[in-house]
Amino acid sequence: MRRLALLVSGASGMLLPRHLLSVLAAHPEIGRLHLVVSRGAAQVLAHELGRDRTGADALVEAAGVSEEHREKIVVHRDNELDAPIASGSYRLDGTVILPCSAGTLGALATGIASTLLYRAGAVALKERWPLVLGFRETPYSVLHIENMRRVAQAGAVLLPPIPAFYIGEEDEDDLRRFLDHYALRVLDRFGIREVEHTELRWREGEG
After folding, report:
1. What would the mean pLDDT of 98-121 be, rounded to a whole number?
2. What's the rounded Cα separation, in Å, for the pair 87 and 121?
3. Quick one: which H or E segment has residue 46?
4. What pLDDT digit, counting tens, does each position of 44-71 carry?
5. How far apart are CA 37 and CA 117, in angstroms?
6. Closest among 48, 43, 76, 49 to 61, alpha carbons compared
7. Is the pTM of this model over 0.90?
8. Residue 185: which of 152, 205, 207, 158 has the closest Cα?
9. Tell me, what's the pLDDT at 87?
C-alpha cells in the first residue's frame, strides 16, 4: 500500500486539494495519507469553501471523505516538526503540495524548513521521491521563474493546474472534468493507475 503526503499551502484554489483529497482517500492503492494544512491555507479554505470550521478537519469534511476512508488520513499541524513526515527515514511514495503558493515555492528553492509543510517538501527533495507542486501564481515574475528552475533541477515536478482542453467539449461538468484530470495527472507522477477516468487521457488518432 502506498503512503503519500498532501500538503496544502495558502494560495487560492481550495477546490483543488478538496477534490484531490477525495480521490486519494478513496483510492485502493493508498493505505496512508498524511495531511498538512498551513495557517494561510486554513484562512483561504474558510473563505473559498465557506466552512465554519477551519484547517484540515474542514478540508476533510468539504471533501466528503467517508468514515471508512477517514481512517487512512493522518492530520498534522504545520508546527508539528516532530511528525514522521519531517524525517527522510519515514518513507513516502510521493508528496504533493496543492495549491503551492509563491512563498512555499520560494522556501523550497532556498532550503527554508521552518514549518512542517516546508520541511516535508524539503525531505521529498533530498530523498528524491516524487514531489509534485501545483503552483498557482500568475503571471510569473523573474523570481518565480528562477525558483521554479531551482526546484525543478532539485527534482520537483511543476504541475500547474491548467485546464486540458483536449478532454472534451464544454459542458456544465467542465470543472469536475478538469479536477478529475488534474487528479489523474498527480497519480501518474506517483505511478498509481487511475482506472475510472481513462476517457480523459489523450487518445491516439485524435487531433
Report:
1. 98
2. 11
3. helix 39-49
4. 998 888 866 678 999 999 999 999 999 9
5. 8
6. 49
7. no
8. 158
9. 98
Which residues, 6 or more positions from 77, have their beta carbon under 8 angstroms from its beta carbon? 36, 116
Backbone angles phi, psi at 172, to 5 degrees: -70, -15
Retrieve residue 131's grid coordinates: 514531489
Q: Which triple of cell numbers denotes residue 181?
A: 484530470
Record the cell numbers describing residue 40, joined without a space.
494561510
Largest distance between two CA atoms of the chain: 51
DSSP one-letter string for 94-115: EEEEEEE-HHHHHHHHHT---S
Give the C-alpha separation, 198 to 53, whole Å: 35
DSSP run (H or E) holding 2: strand 2-8
3-state secondary structure of 79: coil
Grid coordinates given for 139: 503571471
pLDDT per residue over 169-196, tens digit each?
556 567 788 888 888 888 888 998 776 6
Distance, in Å, from the CA atom of 164 to the CA atom of 98, rounded to the nearest integer, reads 18
